[in-house]
Design brief:
Length: 368
Amino acid sequence: MEAIAAGEAVDPLGPLRGPDEPGCDVFLTGTVFLDIIFTGLDSAPVRGTESWARGMGSSPGGVANMATALARLGLRTSLAAAFGDDHYGEYCWDALEQGEGIDLSMSRTIPGWHSPVTVSMAYEGERTMVSHGHEAPAPAFRGRPPGPSDAFPSCPPTARAAVASLGPGGGEEWVAQAARRGARVFADVGWDESGRWDLGALADLEHCEAFLPNAGEAMRYTRTDCPRAAARALAEKVPIAVVTMGAEGSYAVDGRTGESAEVPAIEVDALDPTGAGDVYVAGFLTGTLAGWPLADRLAFAGLTAALSVQEFGGSLSAPGWPEVSHWWRAAPPALRGRYAFLDDLVPPAAGPAARRRAVPTIGFRHPG
């Protein structure tokens, strides 16, 4: 790991870069939502009553959570997504491209299509979400200039890595294509609404280098009653299995070497957990591409997730290196040994960055 001088931007892959660089570090695709987040609720809303939230924020959501987390950690990120041509879509596009430097050259604005919206209510350390949207029209949803047949994205760019969200079924062709082109595929998974929890139904798992479910998902898929046993079982199916365990931290097994690691979670006052899982994956992916030891990758992923839940929203709560540096300079003595690897990474004089954060509205007509 190379030390970073004060004032320099942190490029975690700097020592690995060369003349034959791929087009981007990470490629991902999915649905971008406009997220409206309410926090400070004392309890879940009760039917027939009106609840007032003490806090509110708006930000791009959905796949934008992961894309923003990756970009803020210094990875060159390419996102293929559909955007509505309404004000919500314009705001999300601007926030991602201009605000975060994410490459949207494979994304499209769809005339007459309204942006999907999610309302998230955070209370008691959890969240409840209500979403609305319609599937984007297929002919406009392509990863290259319109052609007669290929589905989007028909040709993902050459990248060091790709992020996929797995689900039961026949798999996504772009995941296999990305793997064939040399991308290291990192995947999470959603709740199986069918209740079958059939690991064999996750067709794209064979293309993945790392699989990062939470403890509940991992135990159901492996028919185990222990997150660590679940990780060991998953490591027989995928090179690296990481199981997140909430307040207990995370546990990982490298099936190729037999190495395992466990790192406890960092205790923080959580404001909003939206997007924390995406931030965790982004942190682990960053450390993996940079070649860090397995335990350091778990520690860094857990730290970035812990920093994210102290801000509103999903995408715009993601921390970057200035926030990591600011935390490290004031880290409790009990954690300094575990996170000593940050000494060689963070800018020694950096403070929290002046980043876009989720705010109650998406813009004013006249600057205040």
